[in-house]
């Protein structure tokens, strides 16, 4: 047992073991090899790491106490240096331990399988691959490989984008209107790079794979024939552990040439990676909100640079960060912007945006008369409408007029939402669900009423309002609702979407869930019922999100435009002349982005500064805030932190916007800097200080804390 090796393990986030541990091994194990090692009473999966084992000459480690590696998974190729560098970077940047990030990036089932079992799984992958190779080579002898799928002729804009993609190193922002054919560009770029070398692999990321089975289908349809059915694999959290392991092994061993996945896929081991595509790059789902709070989009850019490969981000409404990075190179832009402003096809017009000034509509009306009339017309013509609202449930609050009681959640600083279908009050934060009280719990008044509106009530109301309308064949209007409540069961969303696609629905009601990504061809009218709220939010990213959402929603309309008239996007608003709605009317993302960037520059907001949030949860608000404020004060006494003080702004601790969830008090502290490097250095130096504060008497009741670098929600 002469070899000392460093092994990364998944140790608890706040344990003192941050780096690799030293073990003994008979063989010299290469970095990246997966091993099983003992830790206390347990046996854990670990990754042999590059770090030189600690020299024990100092006496800090008693050699006789070192334990041997239990087993090495020799059949599995080692994780390569690029992968290890990506993990090390992500851990460092997002202020987590490398062991946590590395082990979280591996399929969970690997932890439970013996090396023999892993070898068996590998053999399966290899056998299937060999069978495929044999199959294609015998075929090749007779007929040259052929693509039966007819390729469409590219539009001029698509050709232009692809030419630029080939001529430049990237990274790229494909800024293309909804329906401009971005997916076709992804497919062509992937095809070109896959064809470039025998083992080339590509990674295509989507925000929520459950919402985009269409994309998976398109990639399978395009590539399965040429590269075999095993060449396209998916990686997302909706898969069984066995499926995830199979996909991961396929990617790791090179059998999978196209890896499609959600944010977690950015960490997949893909040894011959040649291209990363990030579709809908603006989507907040790329940011993780637990464990290491990484941005898969940002890591994709980093990984691209690390591996010297191209990265293609795509969106009709890019994040302002990405938009800013893709400004002209002479102004300092680092991404190349590829522009595809036109929609594909004959009826390629973008929908007409109509603003309804709610100040001039009957008081208290939900669906304004002009919108209702327009919907009736569409239905009578056999077309589909989509109506969305940002809140599910029936009504956000139940209230008593007599004593002003409201349906607060006893455990959270939030209201419980009334769900009429099962007459419950449900907290959307902690999940507490109780039957609706028969009378006001405070004063006994039996007359409790609803305040505000959710999707459930909107559906009910629309059914009433549209009850007299008939479809072209004389039958009644069919209304369907899609939101988190109706899609709880596995497969429910797919079923409901299929019904919409099949034309079995005339009016689709839902939350913003329906506005994202789906290609609804027959919808010719889209309506946002009450979007104004986002304009008053304290979160500076709120207008950006609203604009993106409305543009995406508008993009759902009229891909196969109406036979009768142009498709429409309706917005009901009390602020019809707001610049955001002006820009929306003109489908002018660049104008909107410019005005937002100007505002942010004046206010010194991202992307003109860099932020991190430290969030703390405790039994009391005082303890949560004390922890943050003490850590802040203590940083001044730490030389490394003090040296950076001129570049760092530490704000006082404040309660989070929803201060209490499930009886846990939450507070946060913003850390800001004009320099990313200074912020990084500060956070790294500050970590031990944060760890130490838990032991202060003022912090009694502190439950957990975490650093969120580049937070999306402030
Ligand atoms: P985006 O991703 O930009 O919203 P898609 O790639 O989904 O747009 O394209 C919209 C529709 O246009 C799809 O049905 C696609 O098959 C079709 N399409 C894309 N490119 C072309 C083309 N060059 N010629 C004809 N149809 C195309
Ligand atoms: Zn009351
Ligand atoms: Zn609650």
Question: Compounds present?
Answer: adenosine-5'-diphosphate, zinc ion
Biggest sheet, open or closed, and with what strands and sense?
Answer: 7 strands, parallel
Please give the number of β-strands.
28
Q: Approximately how much helix is present in the residues?
A: 25-40%
Distance between the termini: 52 Å
Radius of gyration: 28 Å
Unreliably modeled segments:
55-59, 137-146
Strand order of the largest sheet: 8-9-7-10-11-6-12
- CATH class term of the largest domain: Alpha Beta
Strand content: 15-25%
CATH topology of the largest domain: the name is Rossmann fold
| Secondary-structure-derived class | alpha/beta
Instruction: Give the CATH architecture of the largest domain.
Output: 3-Layer(aba) Sandwich
- Give the CATH superfamily of the largest domain: P-loop containing nucleotide triphosphate hydrolases
Globally, the shape reads globular
Tally of individual domains:
5
Number of helices: 18
Mean pLDDT: 87
């Amino acid at each position: 047992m002469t070899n000392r090796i460093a092994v990364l393990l998944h140790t608890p986030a706040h344990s003192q073991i941050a780096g690799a541990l030293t073990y003994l091994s008979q063989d010299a194990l290469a970095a990246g090899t997966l091993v099983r090692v003992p830790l206390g009473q347990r046996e854990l999966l670990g990754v042999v790491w590059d770090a030189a084992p600690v020299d024990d000459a100092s006496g800090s480690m008693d050699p006789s106490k070192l334990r041997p590696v239990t087993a090495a998974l020799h059949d599995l190729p080692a994780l390569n240096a690029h992968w290890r560098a990506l993990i090390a970077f992500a851990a460092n940047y997002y202020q987590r331990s490398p062991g946590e990030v590395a082990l979280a990036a591996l399929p969970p089932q690997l932890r439970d399988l013996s090396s023999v079992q892993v070898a068996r799984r590998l053999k399966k992958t290899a056998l299937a691959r060999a069978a495929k190779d044999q199959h294609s080579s015998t075929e090749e002898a007779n007929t040259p490989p052929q693509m039966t799928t007819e390729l469409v002729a590219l539009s001029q804009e698509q050709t232009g984008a692809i030419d630029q993609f080939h001529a430049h190193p990237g990274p790229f922002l494909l800024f293309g209107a909804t329906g401009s054919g971005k997916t076709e560009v992804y497919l062509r770029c992937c095809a070109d790079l896959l064809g470039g070398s025998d083992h080339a692999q590509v990674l295509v990321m989507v925000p929520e794979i459950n919402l985009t089975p269409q994309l998976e289908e398109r990639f399978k349809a395009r590539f399965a024939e040429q590269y075999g059915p095993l060449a396209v694999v998916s990686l997302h959290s909706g898969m069984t552990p066995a499926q995830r392991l199979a996909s991961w092994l396929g990617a790791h061993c090179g059998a999978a040439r196209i890896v499609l996945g959600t944010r977690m896929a950015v960490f997949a081991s893909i040894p011959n990676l040649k291209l990363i595509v990030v579709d809908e790059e603006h989507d907040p789902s790329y940011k993780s909100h637990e464990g290491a709070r990484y941005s898969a989009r940002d890591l994709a850019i980093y990984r691209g640079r690390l591996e010297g490969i191209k990265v293609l981000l795509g969106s009709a409404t890019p994040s302002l960060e990405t938009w800013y990075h893709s400004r002209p190179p002479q102004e300092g832009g680092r991404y190349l912007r590829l522009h595809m402003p036109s929609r594909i096809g004959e009826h390629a017009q973008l929908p007409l945006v109509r603003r309804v000034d709610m100040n001039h509509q009957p008081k208290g009306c939900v669906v304004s008369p002009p919108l209702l009339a327009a919907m009736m017309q569409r239905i009578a013509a056999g077309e589909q409408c989509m109506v969305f609202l940002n809140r599910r449930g029936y009504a956000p609050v139940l209230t008593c007029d007599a004593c002003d009681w409201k349906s607060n959640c006893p455990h959270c600083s939030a209201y419980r939402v009334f769900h009429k279908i099962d007459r419950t009050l449900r907290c959307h934060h902690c999940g507490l669900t109780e039957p609706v009280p028969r009378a006001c719990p405070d004063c006994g008044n039996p007359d409790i009423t609803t305040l505000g509106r959710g999707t459930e009530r909107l559906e009910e109301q629309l059914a009433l309002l549209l009850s007299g309308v008939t479809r072209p064949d004389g039958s009644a209007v069919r209304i369907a609702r899609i939101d988190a409540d109706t899609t709880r069961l596995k497969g429910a969303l797919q079923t409901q979407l299929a019904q919409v696609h099949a034309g079995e629905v005339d009016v689709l009601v839902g939350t913003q869930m329906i506005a994202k990504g789906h290609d609804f061809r027959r919808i010719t009218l889209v309506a946002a019922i009450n979007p104004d709220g986002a304009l008053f939010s304290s979160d500076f990213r709120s207008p950006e999100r609203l604009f993106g959402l409305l543009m995406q929603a508008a993009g759902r309309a009229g891909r196969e435009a109406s036979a009768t008239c142009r498709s429409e996007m309706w917005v009901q608003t009390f602020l019809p002349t707001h610049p955001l709605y002006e820009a929306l009317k003109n489908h002018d993302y660049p104008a909107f982005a410019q005005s937002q960037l100007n505002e942010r520059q004046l206010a010194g907001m991202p992307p003109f500064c860099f932020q991190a949030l430290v969030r703390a949860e405790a039994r009391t608000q005082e303890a949560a805030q004390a922890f943050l404020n003490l850590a802040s004060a203590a940083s001044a006494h730490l030389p490394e932190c003090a040296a950076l003080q001129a570049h760092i702004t530490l704000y006082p601790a404040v309660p989070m916007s929803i201060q209490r969830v499930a009886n846990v008090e939450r507070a946060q502290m913003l850390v800001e800097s004009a320099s990313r490097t200074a912020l990084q250095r500060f956070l790294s130096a500050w970590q031990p200080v944060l760890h130490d504060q838990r032991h202060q008497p003022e912090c009694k009741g502190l439950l957990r804390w975490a650093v969120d670098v580049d937070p999306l929600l402030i």
